[in-house]
Known about the structure:
alpha/beta; Collagenase (Catalytic Domain); four-stranded mixed beta sheet; 7 helices; 4 strands; globular
Amino acid sequence: MRAGRRSRPRRPKTLAQARRRRRAAAPDLDIVVASPLWKRRRGARALLRRAVAEAAALLSTGRSELAIVLTDDSAVRALNRDWRRKDAATNVLSFPVQRPSTARGLPRLLGDIVIAYETTEREARAEHKPFAHHLAHLAVHGFLHLAGYDHEAEAEAQAMESLETVILARLDVPDPYLARYAIDNR
């Protein structure tokens, strides 16, 4: 390489090369179905794998692993009460690993994402969006929390929402924040 020139990553020449590169970037993902309600949603596991793979590819998380637990409102409510002191069900909770392992040769453990079926379904219906789109959004949102993103301050929230929108677009999921901004700007 000549001095002063940056090397760019090579663009894949074929769709198959692009898929292989994306799979190589995908973290090891363990999906645990802890509620029978999720059996109604065929394809949820594949969707979650694609959503996490896209997020990881964009963030370049390297070799890593995480778990997603698909459960119900009562389990999420208990977790939310015990860990966040909020006695209510919510759609998604993320539990990032506090001290990631630095052991050589082992993937970096990111943490766990827990998604509640009833709240996810109720929100998707209320927002007139497909369940799969909302599920992909929650998986991406949870993954970004594991990667260190947050939305406590307005600037952080905007950065996180922008990143979510980019990742979801790669999954052909419309911007989940468009409707909210349309209402806010009336």
